Amino acid sequence: MFGVILPHRWLYASADSIVSYARLVEELGFKHVWVTDHVGVPPSHLERGHIFYEALTTLSFVGGVVKGLDLGTCVLQASIRNPILTAKQLATLDRLSKGRVILGLGTGWIREEVESFGVRYDERIAYLKEFVKVLRLLWTKRGVLSYSGRFFRFENLIFEPKPLKKIPILIGGNRISSIRMASRIGDGWIPWAVPASLIETGRRLLGGKPIYLATPINLEPTERRYVGALGEEHLIIAGSERDVMNQLDNYLNAGVKEFVLSFRDIRLFKDPKMGKILEQTKRFAKEIMPSFLKA
After folding, report:
1. What angle do CA 84, 86, 89 make, to 5 degrees?
2. Percentages of the chain per state (helix, strand, coil), in multiples of 5
3. Which of 189, 263, 175, 192 is nearest to 226 (CA)?
4. What is the C-alpha separation between 45 and 39, in angstroms, rounded?
5. Nearest-CA neighbor of 61 among 31, 89, 103?
6. Distance CA 290, CA 276 (A)
7. N or C: fewer beta carbons within 10 Å in the chain?
8. Average pLDDT over residues 34-58
9. Ramachandran angles phi, psi of 41, nearest 5°
10. Which residue in 292, 264, 259, 291 sits closest to 276, CA to CA?
């Protein structure tokens, strides 16, 4: 039910901090670990935490150390990647990790980052849809494969090995259009810090496909609402132990299947060390998580 985002960005990111945190959350009983995805950001978006270890490299590194955690992306930007190489990387990781990969996939939202990879910003949704087609083709069809589309084209390609199991594709995004896209081309939906009312809408539109809620969490009283870099409103999980448990219950009743918790975002990248992240992760596992795992 509960997973966490790894500390692979900002000043505290290092091989030791990432691995030690992954080992800690495995010992504490969390179910999965996740990475977010930026390759480079412009000066106008330094609030994103511009020190950023690459997502799939980090996930592969962690997957070789912890053996009992699923490995997820929250979310991988399709618009800065090639689907053939991405399909190979994820299929390989799924094989090496014995079937533990979960793919959260989105369009990307920082214009400068998207367009630096040659994708027009207003074409990133169409790019994502075709990206998913190519992934599914390469992961499910055997023999000699060919594809011809708007963005991608290849002929007479043999693609092996396939993933060990079906890699679920969760479509990211916080709008009704993202939910509809997840319903059409995805295996589930993974929004970021949205209210329970939108989760309820997602449950109605998704027809039983799972919802993974990714959100910052703070085990101290704080303002739950914040405005994102594009002016969008978000709602985090925050407050006392009882407040947080009530919020989790509300989300579960609305339709959330799994939580992807970000303890690292509680200080908005201002802390150079991981003390607060470690403290709150341990508190959550000790004081809050057992009540839900017993249910």
Report:
1. 110
2. 45, 20, 35
3. 192
4. 12
5. 89
6. 21
7. C
8. 83
9. -125, 150
10. 264
Q: pLDDT averaged over the chain?
A: 93
Q: Which amino acid is at 93?
A: L
Q: Is the pLDDT of residue 189 over 90?
A: yes
Q: Which range marks the domain in which residue 271 is found?
A: 2-294
Half-sphere exposure of 212 (CA within 13 A, CB side): 32
Pull the structure tokens for residue 55.
């997502």
Check the CA dihedral 213-79-76-136 and report its sign. positive
Please state which of the ranges 25-39, 47-61, 144-158, 171-185 shows the lowest mean pLDDT. 47-61
Q: Virtual CA dihedral for 78, 81, 86, 87, nearest 10 degrees?
A: 60
Q: Position 10: which residue type?
A: W
pLDDT above 70 covers a percentage of the chain that reads 95
State the alpha helices, DSSP H only, in 166-222: 176-185, 196-206
Cβ-Cβ contacts under 8 Å for 166 (sequence gap 6 or more): 139, 187
**Tally of domains in the chain:** 1
CATH number at residue 164: 3.20.20.30
Mean pLDDT of 201-215: 97
Quick check: 268 pLDDT over 60?
no
Beta partners for residue 262, in sequence order: 216
* Single pTM value for the model: 0.95
What is the spatial distance between Cα 228 and Cα 230, in angstroms, rounded to a whole number?
5
